[in-house]
Each structure stands twice: as structure tokens, then as C-alpha cells.
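Reopening this one. Same input as before:
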Amino acid sequence: MVTFSMLLSLTCIVVFQRITKKLLVSMTGGFAVFYLLNPSLFAKTGSLVFQTLLDKSFLTLVPSVMMIYFLEELMGVSKDAENLSVSVRKLFKGSSKAAAAFLPAVIGLLPVPSGAMFSAPIVAQIAPDIDKLNKASMNYWFRHTLEFFWPIYPAMYLLASLLSVPIGTISVRLFPLFLLTFIGGWIWFNGFKLPKMGRISSQDWRKMWPTLMILSIGVAILVLKIDGWIALSIACGVYGIFRRKYLKEAFLGPVKRVDIILVLLIIFLYKHAITDFDIGQRISQELIKLGGGSILLSTFMPLAIGMSTGITSTAVGITVPLILGIGQASYGILAYVFAVVGVLLSPVHLCLVLSADYFKVDFLLVLRRISVLVLAVAVTSLFLYTV
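Same output, byte for byte:
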């Protein structure tokens, strides 16, 4: 069964990561298991590799990630990151946790690829008193809270189109779940202490200009429709001009992390194996043959596909048409929620992989840290969206 091979592959990634603590080893091992259990891929290996290496998303993501590492290094050696940290903590009256929650959420307003990497350098600097695991977990969680309702994410547009429902209607229905994810996340990481903001001087506001630079990258991508790698190139170029005396030292950042390129390659091989060779469709067909009811198909299928691909749109695009086919359009929003949940739990989700790698923590520990929040979302959605 294709479904079994997918689940075993994901299990192997988790097991290999636990044993080796090496992301590249666990990803390679998990994909190898998936490949060997699907002989139909053998004859298509050349096509799989070819399509992956020519994938525009892959070809642009690699330099994008390297440029983010470069920006982070340049912010560090120039002391801009340190100044930013001081100013932001003043704004939140010394509360690193408040800053580490709100800034990723603000960046989450802009659905840029690997968005958690945009906020990671800022979170790393503004929260020096928070351990690496909590910084990685907060950055990852709060970056994605907006995905539960913000009406500019591609998967939500796809859902609205498939259901023939105004996207505003879907966003309003999902808003209670967003409140749960953000408030629940706040309580889980910060307790019941409310955030406090204070006044800061104009000099402190000026020290926060790196935040505006990162947000401007997202605006350029979203509003001006500029490709992410081009927007990052412009940002790196402009920032490099202002901090040119630190350039040589800053270039060491990306050089020390070139192994992430191989990790990204494995993830994209996984993606193309599932999406380009009908494996996703075969998974859904197997679940239907097993006699899965409407709720099972609306939950387990998007969860499984989301976990296996790390892409919300793919899970929605495969699942929702099948739900419509059995006359259960009312479960469309439930399927969307479980697609997002699956992506959040996916070991091939770029935000998870890159955020964990950035903070040098085991991604399994990040998943464990947010597991209660994810469970709360899943259970609540069953009550909200099955009527």
C-alpha cells in the first residue's frame, strides 16, 4: 500500500533523527525507504531528479535561504541585531517572550516561502534570555497562527474556489480557531501574564529599522509580485552597501551552512515523488477503499498528505475534490484545518526544518513542544466544523 509506505517513511525520518541527530541523514533515510517501497518510481528516477533540479521553487529557495543566512550574519557582526534587540525589548517593557510572540505573527501576515526564516534572526536577538528550543518553537508556532484565518494564503484561495464560497466567509468561520491558536500559544509559552508595551525614543525606533527591512521583503513579494529571491537580493545589496566593511566576515555565515542545500534537495524529491506521479491520488483511493467515513476522509487524509508533502495547497487540492465527490462539502473547512495541522507536524515542512536548523535544535523537540497546541486545534476543529 502506498499509504503504508508513506507512513513508514515518515516514521523512519523520526526514528533516524532520534538516533543520529543529523537532519540530512534522517531525511535521506526516510526518502530511501519511501523510494524502495514504491517500485513504480524506479523507472521514473531520472524524470524525478530532472523535475526536482529544474523546479523553479527549489532553484530560487536555495539562494533565498543562503541570503537569509547572510543577512542574519551581517546583522550580527554589524551590531544591528543587538541594537534591535535592545529597542524591541524596551517596546515590550523588557518582555522577550512578548516580542518573540508578536514579531513572528506580524511576519506571518505575509505568506512568503519559508517565512519562519525571516523572523528567526530577529527572535534570536530579541530573546537572549529564552533557551533555543523555546525560541525555535515560539518562532515556528506564532509564524503560522495566521494561516488558520488570514485570507491571503494560497491554500485558502484554493479552498474557496473548490467550495465556490467567498474567501471572506471562510476567513470569518476560521477566525475563532485563529484566536485559539494565538491565545493558546501565548498561555502555553508565557502563562497568563498579559503583554505590556511602553513608549520608546525616536532613537530606539531608528534602531528597529532591520525589522522594517525584513517586512519590506515580504511586502515586495506580496504586493509588488516580486520573486522572493529577487526581493532578498535587493535587500542584501542595499544592506550590504550600508554595512560594507562587515561583508567579508558576513559571508562566512552561508558558507558554514551549505549542508542545508542537500536537505532541501531531499525534501523536493519527496514532494515531486508524491505530487507528480499520482501517489497522492493513490493514497486517497486506498483510504476510500478501506471504507473511511466522511469525517475520517476529511481529517486523516489531509493530515497524512500534509505531513508527507509539507504543502498545505497539495493536501487541500487532493482532499477537497474527493469530499465534494461524496457530497460532503460542509467538511471542506475541516479538511483545510487538518491540512494545516499536517503541514505543521511535517518533518519535510521547510519552515520547521529551517527554523530548527537555524536555532540548532532537534526538530522533533520542536514538534513535541507544540504538540499540545496542535492537539487542541484538531479537537476544537472537530466541534466547530462538523456541523
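So the earlier flakiness isn't reproducible anymore. For the record, Residues 2-192+200-384 form one domain.
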